[in-house]
Amino acid sequence: xxxxxxxxxxxxxxxxxxxxxxxxxxxxxxxxxxxxxxxxxxxxxxxxxxxxxxxxxxxxxxxxxxxxxxxxxxxxxxxxxxxxxxxxxxxxxxxxxxxxxxxxxxxxxxxxxxxxxxxxxxxxxxxxxxxxxxxxxxxxxxxxxxxxxxxxxxxxxxxxxxxxxxxxxxxxxxxxxxxxxxxxxxxxxxxxxxxxxxxxxxxxxxxxxxxxxxxxxxxxxxxxxxxxxxxxxxxxxxxxxxxxxxxxxxxxxxxxxxxxxxxxxxxxxxxxxxxxxxxxxxxxxxxxxxxxxxxxxxxxxxxxxxxxxxxxxxxxxxxxxxxxxxxxxxxxxxxxxxxxxxxxxxxxxxxxxxxxxxxxxxxxxxxxxxxxxxxxxxxxxxxxxxxxxxxxxxxxxxxxxxxxxxxxxxxxxxxxxxxxxxxxxxxxxxxxxxxxxxxxxxxxxxxxxxxxxxxxxxxxxxxxxxxxxxxxxxxxxxxxxxxxxxxxxxxxxxxxxxxxxxxxxxxxxxxxxxxxxxxxxxxxxxxxxxxxxxxxxxxxxxxxxxxxxxxxxxxxxxxxxxxxxxxxxxxxxxxxxxxxxxxxxxxxxxxxxxxxxxxxxxxxxxxxxxxxxx
Length: 614
Ligand code: ADP
What we know:
Main location: membrane
Membrane topology: Multi-pass membrane protein
InterPro entries: AAA+_ATPase (IPR003593), ABC1_TM_dom (IPR011527), ABC1_TM_sf (IPR036640), ABC_transporter-like_ATP-bd (IPR003439), ABC_transporter-like_CS (IPR017871), P-loop_NTPase (IPR027417), Type_1_exporter (IPR039421)
Bound molecules: adenosine-5'-diphosphate
Number of strands: 12
Organism: Gloeocapsopsis dulcis AAB1 = 1H9
Structural class: alpha/beta
Radius of gyration: 37 Å
Strand content: 5-15%
Keywords: ATP-binding, Cell membrane, Membrane, Nucleotide-binding, Transmembrane, Transmembrane helix, Transport
CATH class of the domain at 13-340: Mainly Alpha
């Protein structure tokens, strides 16, 4: 896979991500600056740490030693200096750990606040994207992005980027100080750098490869688990449990092996780095001691130098670990930005205004619409409906009925022609105000996790309890709701009480009813229900549709037959139009389909009757 893995490849995207999230970070300015100052203080104090030792060696152990050049220190009596140095040591270390604490907590807080806001915006943005985007993207994948990518990015910023930044600052600070302390010694120490590079580059890239493989395996493992648990019914019916268990344990075993391999490689990297530091230290120690004996260097300086040498290069061995994590984080960040950059296809036009209260006069004027350019799904659709009338859309599946209704909701905009409500193009209104006046009942109604109150109130968040109960009564739902364990407070949806298809449908109808919208769209609302449930739902729908301009998509032509206008749609065109009587008289496709269904119904009834009399 072409994911960047090296630090120099990751950094550009990382800066891009940082730039993109900059406005969010700016909102947390005070906290971010405070944390950065704490980080700088930590680095500075770490650089100071060996200095008290230097004074002890140069001025206390050898009182005749060379002056430090700092009058305040040179004027002190050796014992005072010793005590002050000891105190200084504790103070510097104490302050350093305080600063470290401040920067860790501060950055973690900044990261959490920034990313929580990004996540909220991302969620809002996802909901604003048009249906055409959501149809292409898989729902689950989006949830993963919203939840886990943000979490990953936060983790990476806190556990990889900041430590890396701290380490780089320390490395730069120490190297600069070492140059300043003694040029020749520093150049000698640098002799080992090429060795460092050769040894760590190879091991680091091996570690990256293994970790990447391990991540891929973990992904595959999660996919196997999700697949088999998600389809557990099929897995059980086909007795595939053992097969899946074997696949899973195979992947699990390999992932374990990779994990061990990564740890082994990390350990050998640590060993190599330690050894190289020892070699550099030996070289510096040898030459440094000579310099000290020749009075060209103080013992204290040598001590400071050696301590920097040891500490500066130690973090190098963690770089591989950090870059692996950074790569993961940048990939997550890029995916998030990708999503944020998606533009909603249906947008409010400039100057769009809130829709006035509709009467419900709907006209389609020569509408043509294509999901894929060049392959129109709807062609020259032209009809009108008076307020309170019912239009039935019938035809084979795939003929374009649902597409037609989604154009009324402005889930998509037509390519040609326009839709007018009460004489005005719906594109003149904001999408939100347009949709607020349209109720929809779909074939499979989704209940959200929450109480029945809440589920009905989703139709109209400001509804009073009385309005909700009235809506439930219209929907034939009041009685069964009252019989539930906690009545209207019963929790349904995910992990809640399970309701039958008919019951769910009636709650959805109540949701549509509470909205009191003048326009209603019913998309195969009774499909999949048994006869008994169907009867109650149809009754509820009739009450709901009373006085509203209603579009009903129905496979069952009995339901369609009552409509004021029936449109028979084939391949995106209106093939026949009229009332039931007119279409039956015309004896075309509608009549043919109707007769077929009537015969089927007759046959079913007769079979049932014989079954009962037996
Ligand atoms: P119906 O409601 O009559 O069953 P639809 O309006 O759902 O028909 O679909 C009409 C045609 O448009 C079908 O060929 C379907 O495959 C296609 N279609 C529906 N939704 C999309 C979409 N989001 N992207 C691309 N094609 C689609």
